[in-house]
Specification:
Blueprint: E1 5-9, H1 13-25, E2 29-33, H2 36-45, E3 50-54, H3 62-72, E4 77-82, E5 94-97, H4 102-112
Parallel strand pairs: 1-2, 1-3, 3-4, 4-5
Length: 119
């Protein structure tokens, strides 16, 4: 089975490192970027299976990025993370409100990838 490729879009270095650690522990191959513009460049060059997007990003926000990503890569799953109330999150395959734990990350990964099969 192919490992799940995860793109983390998070401007907080601490949060990005924590997400990387949790997803790598779950057996994923992880790439992290700090803003939406870098995410677009990255996913065009190496499409991920799952994008974990923080809503509060510098420049283009996470909601706009998730809309663009869904249009560009319809097969990519999206998980939204933020300190905002989860009821304010845009539609996504999984939600990961902050603060999160390793168990939260594993649950979001499972939810986001329901029905997904690695090629």
């Amino acid at each position: 089975m192919t490992m799940v490729r995860v793109l983390i879009v998070e401007d907080s270095e601490d949060q990005a490192a924590l997400l990387r650690q949790y997803f790598e522990r779950a057996g994923c191959v992880v790439t992290t970027v700090a803003n939406a513009e870098a995410a677009i460049t990255t996913y065009r060059a190496d499409p991920p299976d799952l994008a974990v997007i923080d809503l509060l990003l510098p420049g283009m926000g996470g909601e706009e990025l998730s809309t663009r990503l869904r249009a560009d890569l319809p097969g990519c799953r999206i998980a939204i993370t933020s300190v905002l109330d989860a009821c304010d999150f845009p539609e996504a395959d999984a939600l990961l409100p902050k603060p999160f734990t390793g168990a939260d990350v594993r649950a979001a990964l499972g939810k986001a990838l329901q029905g997904w099969r690695a090629a």
